[in-house]
Structures are given as C-alpha cells and as structure tokens.
Amino acid sequence: MSAPESADAVLARLNFGLPESRIAQTGAEPRDSSKLMVVGESLQHRIFNELPELLRSGDLLVFNQSRVIPARVMARKPLVNRQGGGLIEVLLLREEATNLWSAYLKPARRAGKELWLGDHKAEVVGVLDDGARLLRFETDLKPHLDEIGRLPLPPYIAAGDDRVWRERYQTVYARDDGSVAAPTAGLHFTPKLLARLDERGVEQAHVTLHVGAGTFKPVQGSVADHVMHAERYAVTPATAAAINRARAEGRRVVAVGTTTVRTLESAWDGQQVQAGEGDTRIFITPGTPVNVPDLLITNLHLPGSTLLLLVAAFAGEARIRAAYDAALAGDYRFYSLGDAMLLENQR
Predict the structure, then answer these.
(1) Contact at 8 Å (CB) between 165 and 151?
(2) Which one of 148, 178, 193 terminates a domain?
(3) Which of 95, 156, 212, 271 is the most exposed place for a label (fewest CB within 10 A)?
(4) Residue 117 reports pLDDT greater than 60
(5) Cα 266 to chain center, whole Å?
(6) pLDDT tens sequence across 279-293
(7) Residue 116: count of CB within 10 angstroms of its CB
(8) Strand 79-80 to 340-344 pairing
(9) 3-state class of 211 per DSSP?
C-alpha cells in the first residue's frame, strides 16, 4: 500500500486564482437568498432558502452560537509632558484571565508600556510567540466594548458603517460573546428559515467556539509546520446528548460551519461526543477522519487556507476541486459574505 499523499500536495492542487470582484463585500439580502451548491455524487445549484427541502425530518443541525465582540479599538499612548499621545490600533483576541487580554497592537508596544482604551488604562505585561501582547487592565473592559470598540471585519472586506456591520456580521442566533470573526456559514440563516426547518422536523442544537484572528492566517511553508491558533469551545450536556442520540438512531448530524466541525471533533472521544469545554488547536487535513458530522454547511474559502484543507478532508479532494471549478466558472461569491455549499462526508 502506498503512503498517503501529503497535505502540501493537496493544497497545491487546490490553489486557484480569484478576481477581487468575486470577493463578496455585502451579504445577500435577505440572508437566505444566497446560492447553495450541493456537493455529493453530483453538483446541484440551489438557493439557501431551499435547505429544508434538502434535509430530512430527524436530521440534527448543530450551530456555533458564538457572538462577535467589538474587538477593534483605537487606543492612545500616554501623554508625556503634554506631548505624544499617538494612536495605536488594538485588536483584542480574548480574555486570558481576569482583566488580562491578548491583543495585536499596531504599532507594537514593548512590555512595561502603557496605553489607554477610552478611559481604561492598560499595561503591556508580556509578549506571546505570535507577536500578540498581553494587556493588563485595571478594570473590567467587557462592559465597555460596545461603546469604545468596532466590529473586527475580515481584511478583505471594506470598512463601512459599524452600526450596520454589528447586525449584518453576526448570526441571528449568536449568544455567547467572544469571537473576533463571525462563524460565517451561519450568516445565511434567518428566523423564518429556522422556523421552517423546525416545521420540517429538523432538530437544532448549539455549541460554542470563539473564533480567533488566526482563522485568517494562511498556510505558509509546509502544512506540517503550520501552528493552529487556540480557540475556546464548549459543548453542553444537552447538546452532547442530542448528537449522540441522533448518531445512535442513524439520523444525520449537520454541522453549520467549519468551527462547528472543529468543536465536534475536539469533543469526540472515539465513541461519542463528550460535554465539556476547553481550548482546541485541532487541525483537520486530508487523511484526517471526520467522525461526527455527516453533512457540512460552509462558505467558499481562501486558497492556501486551513479551511480549504478541512473541507477537502471532509468531502474529498476530487469533489472539492469540481465544486470550486464550478463556482469559479459560475457567478458564485466567495469568502465570509459569499455563497454557501452543502457537503457530504466522504466516509
């Protein structure tokens, strides 16, 4: 038996050029009017609001209910002799401990330096391996983020009215604060569509994975050397029980988004999904079995990305290549605000 081919070779074959005009700058309105490509033995071109027709009564949809926080803040340096006070762009990543946040700073600041986010003083108390800084605040910053922060949009989306983005770059079922990027597969759902799915007999459950800025980090160099960002996840006992019951009864589990896949596979103990919470750095690449979900709803991802490797592991390289060729030949829109795919697990 020949050795499995490297993920580097798969990623190279999945590389593609994409005109900037194909990168969606606005989401479809209504949200569920985006295109939906169904990828299985053949390709179907549907509309997202037709999802109830594509699922069965008894299927279990699992959503990531993390909510994006206004994590981008313009801070200022302290005044020295009434001079200075220049601006620093801060991207808060997550609260590591009480009043201790990891963050990217532009320009960077050395340990021991101070800065002000609104009326909230912070000191740089450490530097992490990826260049992020640890900021120690004197008070709890979280209640004030809505006032002083802006939503952190992906780098390929042009900035606009923050008030508009706070609604549009958020799933309608978001509950748990903590992400710095939206779990974008969920942006296609509307309350009306969720109600139709419920009427269809499709069950719904929720997990939480707080999406970090590392989701935008492309693979540079060898896949084997790529360091995945750590993200916090939680699976409630009720959700774990619902998933394990569905699997035992032969009903399909449908993951909404790659973050949900990563959560479920992180909670998989080899036999079933375990309730609990923790950090995960799981990296799913071709050759990695995906054990829990039978179907995956996802957007069209960046070339060279870890997410493209994940969908190739899930659906198979040949199917993903055919799907992306069809999307490029057609008028599918790409990335966070673009169109969607419904993928079958190749197992």
Answers:
(1) yes
(2) 148
(3) 271
(4) yes
(5) 15
(6) 999 999 999 999 999
(7) 15
(8) unpaired
(9) coil
The tally of domains found in the chain comes to 2
Listed range (8-22, 26-40, 43-57, 257-271) with the worst mean pLDDT: 8-22
Strand partners, 124: 135
| Contact assessment for residue 100 and residue 136, using Cβ atoms and an 8 Å cutoff | yes
Report the pLDDT averaged over residues 199-217. 92
pLDDT one-digit tens code per residue, 135-150: 999 999 999 999 999 9
Do 223 and 11 contact (CB within 8 A), yes or no? Answer: yes
Query: DSSP class of residue 129?
Result: T
**295 phi and psi angles, rounded to 5 deg:** -130, 155
> How many CA atoms lie less than 13 Å away from 42 in the CB half-sphere?
3
- Any idea what the Cα angle at residue 193 is, between residues 231 and 337, rounded to 5°? 50
Helix or strand holding residue 73 (H, E): strand 72-76
Contacts of 287 (CB under 8 A, 6+ apart): 4, 7, 313
Both 198 and 102 in one domain: the answer is no
